[in-house]
Amino acid sequence: MGSLTRSAASVKTVVGRSSKAIAPLSITSSLGSPDAAIDHKTIDSLQLATEKASRTGLFVSGLAVKGVNVTSRRHASTYDVPYPNFDECRRKSTLDAKVASRDTEPERVAFTRAVKGVAFGSFGLWGAKEGVQLLLYSKSMSMATRALAAIEISMNDIPEGTTKTYEWRTRPVFVRHRTKAEIDREKAVVVSELRDPEHDDVRVKRDEWSVVIGVCTHLGCAPIAGAGEYSGYYCPCHGSHYDASGRIRKGPAPRNLDVPPYVFKGDTIVVGEEEK
Amino acid sequence: MSLRQLVRPIATLQSSRSASAAATKQILESAPAAHVTSLKNGFRVVSEDNGKPTVTIGIFVENGSRFETQQNSGVSSFLEHLLYKGTNKRTQQQLETELAGLGASLSSETGRDHTAYYVQAASKDVEKVVDIVADILRNPKLDAAAVEKERQVLLNKLDELEGNYQNLTFDMLHTTAFQGTGLAHYPHGTTKSIQEITADQIRQWQADNYRPVRMVLSAVGGGAEHGKLVGLAEKYFGDLSNEYPGKVPSDLGIRFTGSEFRFRNDKFPAMFAAIAVEGVGYGHADALPLAVVANGIGQWDATHGSSHNAPKRHVQRLVEGYGLHGFEQFNINYKNTGLWGVYFVADGKDFENVTNIHSIIQKEWKHMACALEAQEVEGLINQYRNRFFSKVESNTGKAKFNAKELLYTGHLRSLADVEEQLSNLSANSIGQAMNRHIYDRDIATAGVGRTEGFPEYSYIRQRMWWWRL
Ligand code: FES
């Protein structure tokens, strides 16, 4: 008897209990194991019984454990639960169990791949466009450079007695086509009485045209043209009044409105260009 | 000149390495060669005479649970068990006495796709052993009383098996991964099938499956001289007819299904889990790289001496308090398909712990697929070489290897061939194989025991790939 041995007795301990070596491929039989149906003296069963006893305590549950107490043995194991058949949910191409799933894969994934391809493809195209744009922008004029550019204003667009607002270097610029009355009034102002003493002559290049930057020198609001006590500009924020030359006359602002560099070219005013 | 000096040592290093590889090959080539002969009826004999005082003679039969149906599930193993119960010439008692007299030991195993019987004996007893084995295989008695007796043994065994959690986990893994195919069947059958199998069915099974084309006799050891064994095979098996009285057994499919199986039972001591992708068949070109990687990922359990200081980075991370008791990477090759994955045991007390274990192992897989480096490969190959060559060192190990080669691929690699294939592996070829079979492939998962914290399928599946360009 001793000459016939079990083959898979090599034991690797995982979880501190013994189990068969990992390859679950084989079950073994042995001439050496007794055949009595209810005798649990096989190597397997003895080992198992010991493990169960030491795990749960012999007197606690040992007797109820199947296989240790023969009378309580039941033939209903996990192995007897049939695995459900999922054929209904399968695609037609995978119904044949003889075909490796790998072989039917290209067809099965084609649609999702296509959808993904379109989705990610367009996403990719957009991304590529963004990338290119980013590169180009980095090579092109910077914001600062762009802001330095000059703007051209057609003088014909501004009738006498009106003021129009333009944007230059991200700031508003007021261009005022003054009337004779306004010119006379501003020229007559006594400079010494002003908070920021400047004669109208130094603030304009042609008497008919006053060009100022529309940013209140107090805290930076945008004044309203043609309003206020001096019928020049009025800042609604804290009540600064400017005259038609853009000089501060009343209110909290400390300085006159700034005059940007500009030149006359034919019938246009070019703001942002210095006189040569 | 200085450059030359720099270059020189490296050059010598390389040449010495290839010299040693060449030496290994020479040694392997001079090892006793295995010879293969196919008898007229298709019965194959492979033998290798290595001059040792002992010999292993094995007969491998291609049958097993993947050829069975729901109704006769377990019949292969039933038959294997019954073959020990005596033949028409010898009673069980006589068999035992005779083998004991020779000091020989007979063992057998039935798996999903093969049954193996092998005898370890003294080299002078080759003929006697073949005589006994042939008698067992060809003239089993299979009488009703023995069948009934064995039925009870098998039913008991079935009960016991449920307490073998590792086995249970692997069986469930097969059942879900290969649902609807023969590989889903349990090698030991179900209660119902074992209760219902009749002696006639067993006899029929033997007639259908134990046919010469499905059998290989493999002998390794002293006295396993090829001519002699061919003669013996001719004498004892040459008259076996290759005709199929019943139906030709079919393997009932190889379809792998990405799926999940969970069997929660909080009375079990831990969570037993396995995740696997569809592996490759034994003869597949990628079988070796996948085996090398699997072996490299290796195994660890709480009884190991090393933890944080382990040589493997994933082991170092795995032991970081995730309640892991042990893990083992496995690589199972059947004839035309396989399973490749990891088995682990953990407390399973906490979802996060379990997902961490999954992630760490899967990260290692992805690393092997995408980021393997040359020096790592050398380590992996060396580890595999050690494992492989020590496995085929024994007579039995080599006999199994030879038989498996023939049964699965129809031809035989010598050890030098294997060495050659091994040394041809590179980071590139391994990475490609990993990408073909592991990276972003569907998985089958099985969780048994305390599986409350077992992550759902999509969670694990999602970790089979990386964001990468
Ligand atoms: S900001 Fe214009 S008055 Fe204060």
UniProtKB/TrEMBL annotation, chain A:
It comes from the Eukaryota. It catalyses: a quinol + 2 Fe(III)-[cytochrome c](out) = a quinone + 2 Fe(II)-[cytochrome c](out) + 2 H(+)(out). It is found in: Membrane; Mitochondrion inner membrane. Keywords: 2Fe-2S, Disulfide bond, Electron transport, Iron, Iron-sulfur, Membrane, Metal-binding, Mitochondrion, Respiratory chain, Transmembrane, Transmembrane helix, Transport. Its EC number is 7.1.1.8. Binds 1 [2Fe-2S] cluster per subunit. It is a single-pass membrane protein. GO terms for molecular function: 2 iron, 2 sulfur cluster binding; metal ion binding; quinol-cytochrome-c reductase activity. GO terms for cellular component: mitochondrial inner membrane. CDD domains: Rieske_cytochrome_bc1. Its main location: membrane. The keyword Transport applies. Residues 176-271 form the Rieske domain. Its cofactor is [2Fe-2S] cluster. The Rieske protein is a high potential 2Fe-2S protein. Belongs to the Rieske iron-sulfur protein family. This is Cytochrome b-c1 complex subunit Rieske, mitochondrial.
TrEMBL record, chain B:
Residues 44-184 form the Peptidase M16 N-terminal domain. The keyword Coiled coil applies. InterPro entries: Metalloenz_LuxS/M16 (IPR011249), MPP/UQCRC_Complex (IPR050361), Pept_M16_N (IPR011765), Peptidase_M16_C (IPR007863). SUPFAM superfamilies: LuxS/MPP-like metallohydrolase. Keywords: Coiled coil. Residues 144-171 form a coiled coil. GO terms for cellular component: mitochondrion. It holds the Pfam family Peptidase_M16_C. GO terms for molecular function: metal ion binding. Residues 197-383 form the Peptidase M16 C-terminal domain. This is Uncharacterized protein.
